[in-house]
Amino acid sequence: MFHAVNRLTLKWSQRSSGNAMSKILIIYHSQTGNTEKMAWAVADGARFIENTEVVLKRAQDTTLDDLLGAAGLAIGTPENFGYMSGMVKDFFDRTYYPAGDKVFRKPYVVFISAGNDGTGALRAVERIALGYKFKMVYDPVISKGKLTDDDLAKCRELGSTLAAGCQAGIY
Predict the structure, then answer these.
(1) Domain total for the chain?
(2) 108 has which bridge partners?
């Protein structure tokens, strides 16, 4: 499926090559390294799209300006006790009120490294994203247990789809 998306996103990037740069912000937290590997794969997928700038940051280092300056957002978290990581939650806590209505319908995607099923972490992110009024634009990637090459391929697809849609102006 990644190859099909690559062909599709390549067409979008070629069509939109006269457009300005789209900035994709990828925020993540990782303790074991799995979510970080997923974040790098999302970044690789987004970089595939021409005229895309990728900003890859740990959640604790991400600022309101990073969020406001991005055309699209990818959020990566491990599943911690059936919830998103505290650092990702901290990012949301620090930016929610200052962001106000400045991020209305900002496209976003989610990737999760889960020891269990990841649904609790996903629900938590989706609930907060609803408050921001973000718009989820692609199915989340949830890696359950050991991170696989297939999981990383899905993350690259996630990144290229987000970037292509932002670059084409369809989100």
Answers:
(1) 1
(2) 73, 136
- The string of pLDDT tens digits covering residues 7-21 is 333 333 334 445 689
Size of the chain, expressed as the number of residues it contains: 171
State residue 11's pLDDT score: 36
Rounded to a whole number of angstroms, the distance between the first and last alpha carbons of the chain is 21
Name the average pLDDT for the chain.
Answer: 90
Tell me the two tokens of residue 146: 């050991």
Could you tell me the residue range of the domain that residue 94 belongs to?
2-168
Both tokens of residue 78?
């491990």
Q: Could you tell me the two tokens for 137?
A: 């634009």
CATH number for position 101: 3.40.50.360
Nearest to 102 by CA among 60, 69, 137, 135: 69
Exposed e or buried b per residue across 23-39, where buried means at least 16 C-beta atoms within 10 angstroms of its C-beta = bbbbbbbbeeebbbbbb
